[in-house]
Amino acid sequence: MFAALAAAKQGHSVILLEQNEKLGKKLFITGKGRCNITNAGEIDNLFGNVVTNPKFLYSAFYGYDNFRVIDFFESHGVKTKIERGNRVFPISDHSSDVIFALEKALKQAKVEIKLRQKTERIFVNHGRAEGVVLSDGRTIPGDAVIIATGGFSYQSTGSKGDGYKFAEEMGHTLTPRYPSLVPMNAREEYVSELQGLSLKNVEITVKDKNKILFQDFGEMLFTHFGVSGPLVLSASSQVGKALFQRELSMYIDLKPALSQEQLDKRLLREFESGKNKQLKNVLTNLLPVKMRSLIPFVSGVSQEKKVNEITKEERGDIIRALKEFPLTLTSLRDFNEAIITKGGVCVKEINPSTMESKIVPGVYFAGEVLDVDALTGGYNLQIAWSTGYLAGISV
User: Fold this and answer.
1) pLDDT tens per residue, the chain (395 residues)?
2) Homologous superfamily assigned to 2-177+341-394
3) How far apart are CA 157 and CA 303, in angstroms?
4) What are phi and psi of 71, to 5 degrees?
5) What are the beta bridge partners of residue 329?
6) H or E element at residue 55
7) How far apart are the C-alpha atoms of 74 and 90, rounded to whole Å?
8) CA–CA separation, 73 and 64 (whole Å)
9) What does the domain layout of the chain look like in residue ranges?
């Protein structure tokens, strides 16, 4: 939609082909239906949150940055607000307002919208794009084609990898594609006991043997299959490739604000105030209910043991369980639970100043179909707006 708008404003006659019965199906569900439009941080922050190929986005981000995105929606009737982490949302909390603003702008720009039109392939003649071939065999001619089909994630919205197919048929290289910003499966049986438990202000570390692949602080959630929540989704974008090859170790620091020595003193105070109590009853001030029996289990110290009988070594084991609660990550969840797709059309084959293919002139790429991805917080939509705009003004 943004690419079509940008092209139309350059004076081009633009046809927007959409295989669904309406525009913006994926946009409708972003941000849990609230649509995290962009992030209001500085430009360096945008680049800092792009995980794959941030340098490729230099022209795109500087050409149409996050503040221009906010201005666009504000000027089209979508009042915005900034929340935690500089995330930008419509004040209404309705993604439908964002879609409506785009539809209205498209109509004003006289973009011809064709719904329920599935593209089969790009029509290439003498090495140059000259339109598209639809699934019913019809050819729609054009002197430029912008591929903005998204990736594999949320396939119910129509994102089934068509753009990858188009690109490959034209000779483009595809990098391996993985689900990203996605929950992860864990092996331990005790995970199911923790289902529904949300932990705030914890630190997680993901390791491949002794090598740290990810470490950050924030909020996470236990599910029936493993772990989810903002912290875990961010981790998946950094560790997903390794997790496809082997299992990884994850450790949760339940008390990151306290050093081991400070936690030991805190534990001793709890023990002192409940000398004759069992361990499980003393942990009530330190842990959520669902974890009180698991910390003794992980530490190897019986939860029935009275605290005045616990040795210094056993106390050390309890502290380690609190600072390094262990999980074994076995795999990522699938594309239907992934916010985005990692991997895509190799950016070495795309001109970063225009988004045009270096292989087939007249073909441009925008958004998630490219091998670019970012963390949560509005950054992936910003990639879509910026690359879409750049492709649109370049045709």
Assistant:
1) 999 999 999 999 999 999 999 999 989 988 888 999 999 999 999 999 999 999 999 999 999 999 999 999 999 999 999 999 999 999 999 999 999 999 999 999 999 999 999 999 999 999 999 999 999 999 999 999 999 999 988 777 777 899 999 999 999 999 999 999 999 999 999 999 999 999 999 999 999 999 999 999 999 999 999 999 999 999 999 999 899 999 999 999 999 999 999 999 999 998 988 888 989 888 888 899 899 889 999 999 999 999 889 899 999 999 999 999 999 999 999 998 999 999 999 999 999 999 999 999 999 999 999 999 999 999 999 999 999 999 999 99
2) FAD/NAD(P)-binding domain (3.50.50.60)
3) 49
4) -60, -40
5) 186, 248
6) none
7) 9
8) 13
9) 2-177+341-394, 183-333
Token pair in block for residue 270 = 């709890």
- The region that residue 362 occupies, defined by phi over 0 for left and psi between -120 and 50 for alpha, beta otherwise, is left
**Residue in the structure block whose two tokens are 């499966």:** 185
Please give the Cα distance from 142 to 363 (Å, whole number): 10
